[in-house]
Amino acid sequence: MEVHHVTEDAETFTCNAFLALGEVPTLVDVGAMPGVEGVVREHTDSVERVVLTHQHGDHVAELDAVVDAFDPAVYAYAEHPHRTHALADGDTVRIGDETFEAVFTPGHADDHLAFVSDATLFGGDVVVHDDGAFDYGSFGRTDMAGQSRERLIESIETLLERLPDGVEHMYSGHGGVFHGDVRDVVETALSRAEQREPKYPDE
User: Fold this and answer.
1) Are 17 and 6 in contact (CB under 8 A)?
2) Where is each Metallo-beta-lactamase domain found (predicted)?
């Protein structure tokens, strides 16, 4: 599956937004980078759907612009004015050329979903590869109102239970893209989260 990181050159704070091309051209999150729809057009004239991992501002700020530009179906766990399809734990959704299972993974956000296929993980902010706090296995912050480290730990455990063997591609909301043994990265993130130490010095 061909995946493009369309917010890679952002000069303002944003999540990673990924364009998956193939049978069903899909944006996984849209980010907060003004002009992201123009970057998408460099790769395709059609976005059939947007799939949201969660609705923090850095993941959805440019949703109005993306909807105006492409009129996609919008899949999300929580309600949103643009949502056309509600997703729940265990639902499946086609992204690019692969079929993904939605895994409910709260802790960082109450409405968080991760998406797993036989080959790929779109991890949102539940687990990331490297994000400035840790290299090779990190996790979403849990120090803000409504967040929970304990719930996040449970979510990573659930994700590991539902992660097929052989997943080799990990695209998460922050940090770098990872290709290799994704299970090992997620297990490393879990072990770090279980230490229950502040992720950032001011946490």
Assistant:
1) yes
2) 14-174
Query: Does 129 reside within a domain?
Result: yes
**What pLDDT score does 201 carry?**
67
The total number of structural domains in the chain stands at 1
Q: Which domain does 126 fall in, by range?
A: 2-194
Say what the pTM is. 0.96
User: What gap in Å lies between CA 112 and CA 57, rounded to an integer?
Assistant: 13
Q: Which CATH number covers residue 173?
A: 3.60.15.10
Neighbours of 148 (CB within 10 A): 14
Q: CA angle at residue 198 from 193 to 201, to 5 degrees?
A: 145
Band (pLDDT 50/70/90 cuts) for residue 141 is very high
